[in-house]
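Methods: holo model generation. Sequences were used as deposited, without trimming of termini or removal of tags, and paired with ligand SMILES retrieved from the corresponding compound records. Each pair was processed once, and we did not select among multiple samples. The sequence and S-adenosylmethionine SMILES for this entry were:
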Amino acid sequence: MTSKWAGEGDNAEALVRKEVEFGEYVGLKSVVAPAVVGGDAAASYGQLVSSLVEAPEPQTVLVRVQLEESDAWQRWNRVRLMSNSSTRLQVLLELSGKSDGDGRTVVQHWRAEPVHVVVLPARLFLQNAGGYPVLRRWDQEAMHQWMDLGVALAVQQGDDGDAEVKDCVRYLRHLAETRPTTAAHCAASDAYRDVLQAPLQPLMDQLASETYEVFEADAPKYEHYEAAMIQAIVDTAAARQDSDRQIVLVVAGAGRGPLVSRALHAARRSAADVAVVAVEKNASAVVELHRRNMSLWGGAVDVVHADMRRWAPAQRADILVSELLGSFGDNELAPECLAGALERLANVCIPRRYTAYVAPVSSSALFRSAREFGGTHALETPYVVNMHAARVLAPEQPVWEFSHMPGDNVHSQRSNTIKFRVQGPALVHGVAGFFDAELYTDVRLSICPATHTAEMHSWFPMFFPIQVPLAVADGDEVLVHMWRRSAGAKTWYEWCVDTPGGTSGLHNVNGHEFWIGH
Ligand SMILES: C[S@@+](CC[C@H](N)C(=O)[O-])C[C@H]1O[C@@H](n2cnc3c(N)ncnc32)[C@H](O)[C@@H]1O
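and the model returned the structure below.
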């Protein structure tokens, strides 16, 4: 193979292989391939890099991507696709340092890619009054964002007159030391960045005590529930004629009791006479409810071990409160549990309605992790994940809603197609899912990026992967098709993504890979 990109003689491939071999001999964990090329030589370059990442040596290959090339991303994407998105392929990103552009835009565009190192040319640095190199404010922020993504930074020696590399490095160290600290409520979530988790199934499974403990640490969530309960109690008290009768509030799916404590508090704060009933189907959690009833609630709570779908109390309640919301709103089967229960049990439901949202998402990290779980199964299963090295390609849009008001239709199947105009170029790896909920009137909870409830950390977004990623250009129209289907004791989602270049095909048809059990 002869090519200019290696810049040496007439057998560039042999030269590259020799250098890789030497790297292996001296024990290097990674080797940097020559700068990625476009045009006619792109296929040969991709073939060579693919053969390196498939070689038995456990080295990572860093593909040098020069941002000054207008088709830098497309060049990288071609190599990545030729190498079947190998986990041993990463990016060494060379900033151009020419433009006065905002460095944060580069992070935004590249955060979904497996960037290992960012190389800053020394000319990117300005001189401060003392003659030392500094970065523009937005470039400082960009460096903080790269550090946050765990990306290494390197400085490339410039021409005469550019800053000294050692001074630039000292400045970058200073930036690292003065990075804004993470808020306490984020610190716990940070440990789960880009970690795929199976969605909880609190109806089919019996949750463990430590899972409840994690829920209970999310004070903002319970504060919102308490605010909703106060309003519902006040409205119920105002609407009723026979003011002697106690208001009955049922916490359905009480777990170890955090909403029960909040219900008692809400009753005190609204100065109303409220009887609180705690219903829970997990026998072990019921033991803890009895313990708390004795030790914390003075025996004031009626603890019932029952499934809310079948529980038949002697007296209809006024307010039904439940926290069966999943990352996609309805994925913990709140509709199946609440719709029927509401008809028999109460007039008012908290939450009153919840909406699922979707958006196309790009993330090499999430796609690779899902694929590593194994085969088609892993890429036809939704995950819950604290998305970090990911790029949501268009603002999220509602896909469907469930409402629990008297007289609402209780059927639980849904489907919809949503059209997005995406920011590209990018590789679509799947669909991100979010939800928001109206607990009561204006008291809302949200995990949508645009409206996220402050400091609430109970829910990470959902990720619905697709088996074969789809490339999109800036401004392309992307269609996301979603279905929520049920049969017998199972509910599941099916999904499909269409881009101008192709379709992902339908995922999880008939729930054959993933379903939620009733
Ligand atoms: C997400 S947890 C929330 C628990 C608690 N409210 C909290 O905030 O910690 C949902 C709870 O609902 C219970 N649950 C789910 N489906 C139920 C049903 N049909 N009847 C009664 N409890 C149910 C589960 O066992 C679990 O304890």
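The first helix runs from residue 12 to 25.
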